[in-house]
Backbone:
């Protein structure tokens, strides 16, 4: 104790602690200043603008029905807004609504025909002075038999749906 | 970040008029925006192949100068290619390969060879009708269509299968 008071004097250690704490605080401040918040905000803003520009304007078109794995195509074009007919081994769906079992509809297609007729009539009521475009998008599982798809496609022109878009995964990706 | 609202002028007591923007909440908002956009972004690019199923809408005079292709795909490894002009077959070819990839390459080569031949130079190959059996999967049919579209054959049609053939396809009639 006498040695302490002789060599270090009164309250020297506490002063040392305070100065060390001050230095630590100073060091921390320097680290925070090194983050450069302005450029970080700039980067975030650019990211938001980029993502907004790439945001799909019609996300419902990209909704692929459950149990349907679309085939890959390297020559695909942009998909247009049209009613979606999904064909899988389990059943056939029109605009995400179940129409019937595939096997039953191939034998007796009248439920599908009625739904298609309803769609056409609704369109014609809402567009009184325009010709019906007859566009429909067909989503079919890649493993299903092509005879099933072609049979269903053959039914569509009878309800004036003659322009068929076969939905595919573009860009040659799996 | 600070925004200068006005300068301190005159000889009076200088008072800082810099308004501080709250950067923390601003960064929070931007982070949330980025998270939302990343989670709702559509990463699978869904495209389409256009097929015309209606018949008899094209004028015959416009079609007469061009060639038409009839494809009968009997399996994933064999098909029959018939090139017609004015409804008359001018070339018939049977293509066989080990896989659908090879078959589509052979089809591309056959079409390219026809287009460069003297018969092919008399008019473009404008349309194709595809007939497929129940043992051919839909994915394989799309690959055949891809091969046609790569050779500028863009007017594609699919011949509807018979009811029995379609039912055989549903009941596992050989499609993958």
Residues:
């Amino acid at each position: 104790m006498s040695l302490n008071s002789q060599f270090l004097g009164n309250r020297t250690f506490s002063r040392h602690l305070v100065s060390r704490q001050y230095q630590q605080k100073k060091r921390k401040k320097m680290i925070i200043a090194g983050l450069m918040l302005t450029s970080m905000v700039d980067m975030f803003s650019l990211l938001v603008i980029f993502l907004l520009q790439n945001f799909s304007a019609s996300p419902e078109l990209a909704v692929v029905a459950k149990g349907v794995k679309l085939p890959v195509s390297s020559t695909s074009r942009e998909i247009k807004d049209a009613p979606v007919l999904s064909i899988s081994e389990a059943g056939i769906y029109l605009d995400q609504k179940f129409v019937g079992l595939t096997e039953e509809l191939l034998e007796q297609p009248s439920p599908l025909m009625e739904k298609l007729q309803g769609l056409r009539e609704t369109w014609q009521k809402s567009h009184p002075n325009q010709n019906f475009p007859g566009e429909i998008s067909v989503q079919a599982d890649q493993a299903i038999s092509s005879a099933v798809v072609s049979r269903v496609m053959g039914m569509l022109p009878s309800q004036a749906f003659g322009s068929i878009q076969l939905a595919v995964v573009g860009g040659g990706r799996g | 970040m600070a925004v200068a609202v006005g300068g301190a002028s005159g000889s009076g007591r200088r008072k800082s008029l810099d308004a501080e923007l709250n950067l923390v909440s601003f960064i929070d908002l931007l982070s949330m925006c980025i998270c939302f956009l990343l989670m709702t972004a559509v990463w699978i690019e869904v495209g389409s192949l256009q097929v015309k199923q209606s018949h008899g809408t094209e004028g015959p005079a416009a079609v007469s100068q061009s060639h038409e292709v009839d494809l009968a795909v009997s399996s994933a490894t064999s098909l029959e290619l018939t090139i017609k002009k004015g409804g008359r077959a001018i070339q018939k070819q049977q293509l066989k390969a080990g896989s659908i990839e090879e078959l589509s390459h052979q089809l591309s080569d056959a079409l390219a060879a026809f287009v460069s031949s003297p018969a092919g130079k008399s008019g473009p190959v404008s349309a194709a009708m595809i007939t497929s059996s129940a043992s051919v999967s839909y994915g394989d049919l799309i690959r055949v269509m891809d091969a046609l579209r790569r050779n500028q054959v863009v007017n594609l049609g699919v011949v509807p299968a018979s009811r029995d053939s379609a039912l055989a396809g549903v009941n596992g009639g050989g499609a993958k």
Summary: Chain B has a mean pLDDT of 79.
